[in-house]
């Protein structure tokens, strides 16, 4: 018998461990719902609820094939020990993992080694694919897609730990709130979202990302499903090839723009295991201020007094998603204006995103912060940026009811409005112009010092 251990890969399509196990005989699909993990990890209730929804749909899809999903509450070693007592020796098929899940896989690995049990780990990411977007696109469209699983054979005797439908009794105390206006988890919902996107939005995808409201409306909305493993990139390309709506888009700018985003996500996954935060360093650490709980709290509540920034944070609380430009604004303000480290961005800001993947977000946060390659382009002025991407303040007014009746010419700088103190809106918590000016001056002086250290340029000859 083969135990298929699901982690952040809650799907039946393009699931190699499940496919190979199902074609080998009896299998037992399991998921480890560890209260200790959820109560101590960086994830929040929004992620747990999304995971539960994904587990429900995974169980439904397994039942259609003759299987079920069994959920165990406890440690990985305890789960496999209980199964070993029932079945004797078996094999374990699972995807490899990294980040916060790794300790549980290592625990299972130690148990398996002691018991002489075989664990076969499959790679989540195909590292043989090209890092060049055009070639990668061609490879993805021409690949041999994994066939759909036709049936599943469960063992004659089943474990007595709960079937998925009864696992709601586990009361896990976890920080954060549910999202009432965000997406729900599950492979079926992921495929429906993908289908609607291919039919209705892909043809104008690149043009629809001009401002925060249209970005939310025109986005693919696939990132939470990718990060939770409800959907794979290969499945996206398979659906694209099979969709009648996409055949005339293969060489269009909108399709290429979408593929570039998928390729960027692929590279983030691929580079994640080899990347570590020690590979970068904060060049601006000399400017970093002592952590201020008050300023950080105001930022995380969307009460900085800077309208676009506050609107983006409140939108994030409400929906779990903002577009990548607003994410860059948030990280830039947190790191460069408040002087916090990128670690704070990962631990405090990152978990508000429904598509949060700690390791990928960590890397992206450091890139947005600048690291060793920090330049003025990494420093985003919230007011200037607001005027650029939300000139009429439509996004601001949607998420800041205090400013919904404010005249347009004051929407980006409400503190200049004569009746500001009647609005009930927070004054700016920092002198933003002064801080941005100091930061850019620091960068200029640092660059000049580095150039002086290098001395006169030496002539070099190519061979």
UniProtKB/TrEMBL annotation:
Q: Does the keyword Coiled coil apply?
A: no
GO annotation, cellular component aspect: cytoplasm
Q: Which domain of life is it from?
A: Bacteria
* Pfam families tied to this protein: DNA_photolyase, FAD_binding_7
Extract the Gene3D superfamilies matched here: 1.25.40.80, DNA Cyclobutane Dipyrimidine Photolyase, subunit A, domain 3 (1.10.579.10), HUPs (3.40.50.620)
Cofactors required: FAD
Q: Which residues are listed for FAD binding in this entry?
A: 219-223, 258, 355-357
Q: Which UniProt keywords apply?
A: FAD, Flavoprotein
Cite a single GO MF annotation: FAD binding
Domain Photolyase/cryptochrome alpha/beta stretches: 1-127
Q: Which GO terms describe its biological process?
A: circadian regulation of gene expression; entrainment of circadian clock by photoperiod
Q: What detail does the entry give on cofactor binding? A: Binds 1 FAD per subunit.
SUPFAM superfamilies associated with the record: Cryptochrome/photolyase FAD-binding domain, Cryptochrome/photolyase, N-terminal domain
By what name is this protein known?
Photolyase/cryptochrome alpha/beta domain-containing protein
């Amino acid at each position: 018998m083969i135990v298929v251990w699901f982690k952040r890969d809650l799907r039946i399509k393009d699931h190699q461990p499940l496919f190979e196990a199902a074609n080998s005989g009896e299998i037992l699909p399991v998921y480890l719902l560890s209260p200790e993990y959820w109560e101590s990890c960086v994830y929040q209730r929004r992620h747990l609820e999304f995971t539960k929804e994904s587990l429900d749909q995974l169980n439904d899809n397994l039942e259609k094939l003759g299987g079920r999903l069994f959920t165990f509450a406890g440690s990985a070693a305890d789960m496999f020990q209980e199964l070993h007592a029932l079945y004797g020796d078996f094999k374990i098929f699972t995807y490899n993992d990294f980040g916060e899940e790794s300790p549980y896989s290592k625990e299972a690995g130690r148990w398996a080694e002691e018991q002489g049990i075989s664990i076969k780990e499959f790679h989540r990411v195909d590292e043989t694919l090209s890092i060049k977007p055009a070639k990668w696109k061609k490879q993805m469209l021409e690949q041999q897609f994994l066939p759909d699983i036709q049936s599943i054979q469960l063992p004659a005797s089943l474990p007595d730990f709960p079937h998925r439908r009864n696992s709601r009794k586990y009361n896990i105390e976890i920080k954060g709130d549910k999202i009432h206006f965000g997406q729900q988890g599950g492979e079926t919902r992921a495929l429906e979202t993908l289908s609607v996107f291919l039919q209705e939005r892909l043809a104008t995808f690149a043009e629809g990302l001009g401002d925060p409201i249209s970005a939310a409306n025109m986005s693919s909305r696939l990132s939470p499903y990718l990060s939770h493993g409800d959907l794979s990139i290969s499945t996206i390309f398979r659906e694209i090839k099979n969709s009648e709506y996409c055949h005339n888009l293969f060489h269009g700018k909108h399709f290429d723009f979408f593929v570039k985003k998928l390729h960027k996500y692929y590279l983030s996954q691929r580079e994640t295991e080899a990347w570590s935060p020690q590979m970068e360093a904060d060049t601006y650490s000399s400017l970093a201020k002592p952590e201020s709980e008050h300023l950080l709290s105001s930022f995380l509540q969307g009460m900085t007094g800077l309208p676009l920034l506050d609107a983006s944070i409140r939108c994030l609380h409400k929906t779990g998603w903002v577009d990548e430009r607003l994410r860059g604004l948030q990280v830039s303000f947190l790191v460069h204006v408040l002087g916090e480290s990128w670690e704070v961005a990962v631990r405090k800001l990152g978990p508000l995103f429904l598509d949060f993947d700690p390791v990928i977000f960590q890397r992206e946060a450091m890139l947005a912060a600048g690291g060793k390659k920090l330049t003025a382009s990494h420093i985003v002025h919230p007011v200037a940026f607001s005027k650029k991407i939300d000139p009429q303040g439509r996004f601001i007014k949607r998420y800041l009811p205090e400013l919904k009746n404010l005249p347009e010419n004051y929407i980006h700088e409400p503190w200049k409005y004569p009746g500001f103190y009647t609005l009930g809106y927070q004054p700016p918590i920092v002198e933003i112009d002064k801080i941005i000016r100091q930061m850019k001056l620091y960068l200029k002086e640092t660059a000049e010092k580095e150039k002086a250290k290098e001395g006169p340029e030496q002539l070099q000859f190519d061979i």
